[in-house]
Design goal:
Blueprint (H helix, E strand, L loop, with lengths): L1 E3 L6 H8 L8 E4 L6 H4 L1 H5 L3 E5 L5 E6 L3 E5 L4 E7 L4 H12 L2 E4 L4 H4 L4 H13 L20 H20 L11 H4 L5 H10 L10 E4 L2 E4 L4 H4 L2 H5 L3
Parallel strand pairs: 1-2, 2-3, 6-7
Antiparallel strand pairs: 3-6, 4-5, 8-9
């Protein structure tokens, strides 16, 4: 079993390094499973490997010391898994449940991972409301915390994107996509005020800064952050 946790914008490179060593029955787990990882590993599927993914990460991870130590917080109560070929989903589900000691459920189709509107919408809508007026040379004196200072404008935009994803799933009638949950359902809030307050209050999100580069005169957006490089090109774009 090979677990792949790299950001989606380097998934192709990771796949090219891994695939030569893959044989029939090799299990390749992509965590999280959105971002097109199943496309990057399509040649592994041809070699009869098993590709599986988690719908979301098991916890929030924060860097303590680069290359040596991270701190995991906010472990989920339940994980969701799907596999290609689909007949191996149950086997993967059982292994993940045993490894993480967290209840794990099987999803009916891998597209339930590909289309899950988690970071591809959470990150991109927030970045849009923060930096839509940014241009080269502009410097911000300060920037709000990414989640703790979440605003109503972002929530309104996220509701629009979330509805669009649900509309897309309704059109794909050949697939069972009932587990592509609306973010309103996932965060248990259907109002702008309630959703905004929910995001601000999540313990695992606290203290996370907006991706930025510090200059002597202030801050500019960190366009090399995975929030930019992964969640637009390999998140929102793939959806």
């Amino acid at each position: 079993m090979i677990l792949v946790t790299v950001p989606s914008f380097v998934m192709d490179d990771a796949a090219k390094k891994i695939i030569p060593y893959v044989k029939e029955g090799t299990m390749i787990g992509i965590i999280p499973g959105n971002g097109g990882g199943e496309i990057a590993f399509k040649d592994a599927i041809k070699k009869k490997a098993i590709i599986f993914g988690m719908q979301r990460v098991p916890s929030v991870a924060r860097l303590v010391e680069y290359g040596k130590k991270v701190r995991a917080t906010g472990y989920r109560n339940k994980l969701y898994v799907s596999a290609i070929p689909n007949k191996f989903t149950g086997k993967c589900r059982k292994i993940i449940e045993e490894v993480f000691k967290i209840n794990c459920e099987a999803l009916p189709e891998y597209l339930n991972l590909t289309l899950t509107p988690s970071n591809p919408i959470l990150h991109t809508t927030r970045l849009y409301t923060l930096f839509s007026r940014y241009s080269s040379g502009k410097v911000y004196k300060e920037l709000p915390l990414f989640y703790e200072e979440w605003d109503r404008e972002t929530t309104k935009l996220i509701f629009k994107c979330d509805s669009e994803v649900q509309g897309l799933c309704e059109k794909l009638r050949d697939f069972d996509l009932k587990e592509v949950k609306s973010l309103r359902e996932h965060y248990e809030n259907n109002t702008v005020e309630g959703f905004t307050n929910k995001i601000r209050s999540i313990e695992g999100f606290k203290g996370l800064k907006t991706p930025a580069v510090k200059l002597d005169s202030g801050y500019i957006p960190d366009l090399n952050s995975r929030y930019f490089k992964a969640d637009f090109d390999y998140g929102l774009n793939i959806i």
